[in-house]
Automatic annotation (TrEMBL):
CDD domains (UniProt xref): HMA
Sorted UniProt keywords: Metal-binding
Domain HMA, chain residue ranges per copy: 1-64
Record protein name field: HMA domain-containing protein
Keyword ATP-binding applies: no
Organism field: Paraburkholderia metrosideri
SUPFAM superfamilies associated with the record: HMA, heavy metal-associated domain
Length: 80
C-alpha cells in the first residue's frame, strides 16, 4: 500500500535521511520518497498508517496528514 504523508520540520538532507531511516526501522523493505520542498513523504509499505506515523513522530517530525491508497492512486485522507 502507498501512503502519502505531509511532514513538517524537515529542512535538510539529514532530515530526509532521518525520516527514511525511521520508516525503514519498522519496514526494511519500504520504498520511501521524500520531497523536501513540499514536505511530502511517499511510502510503499505493508505497515499500517499509524505505525509509520509513529515512526516519523519518534524521529522528531510532525505528520500533519496522511492519505493511503494503491500504487496507482492515493485515496482516503487519514488526517490525524
Amino acid at each position: 500500500m502507498t501512503i502519502e504523508f505531509h511532514v513538517e520540520g524537515m529542512s535538510c538532507q539529514h532530515c530526509v535521511a532521518a525520516v527514511t531511516n525511521a520508516i525503514r526501522e519498522h519496514d526494511d523493505a519500504a520504498q520511501v520518497q521524500v520531497d523536501l520542498a513540499s514536505g511530502r513523504v511517499l511510502v510503499d509499505s505493508t505497515q499500517s498508517v499509524d505505525a509509520l506515523k509513529a515512526a516519523i513522530d519518534e524521529a522528531g517530525y510532525t505528520v500533519k496528514s496522511a492519505a493511503s491508497g494503491t500504487a496507482s492512486g492515493l485515496t482516503g485522507n487519514v488526517t490525524r
